[in-house]
Amino acid sequence: MNAFVDPELCIGCTQCAGLCPAVFRMEGVLAVAEPGPIPPEEVPQAVTAVQSCPVSAIRIEE
Q1: Where is the 4Fe-4S ferredoxin-type domain (predicted)?
Q2: CA triple 7-24-40, angle to 5 deg
């Protein structure tokens, strides 16, 4: 599973980086997802971050 943040939708609320810092971080005023597969132990937190994004800017793909 890989995470992606759409920079056109991201409003920089920092929620994803706070919920799952192993997968998401802030780069300037926008969130970005770390490249590569999500570590298995981080999947639950990454899913919570996706669900918590107020503008649905994050997606997880197999």
Answers
A1: 1-29
A2: 130
> What digits encode the pLDDT tens for the residues 6-42?
999 999 999 999 999 999 999 999 999 999 999 999 9
CA 2 to chain centre: 10
Report how far residue 43's alpha carbon sits from residue 46's, in angstroms, rounded to the nearest whole number.
Answer: 5
Position 42 scores a pLDDT of 98
| First CA to last CA distance, the chain | 4
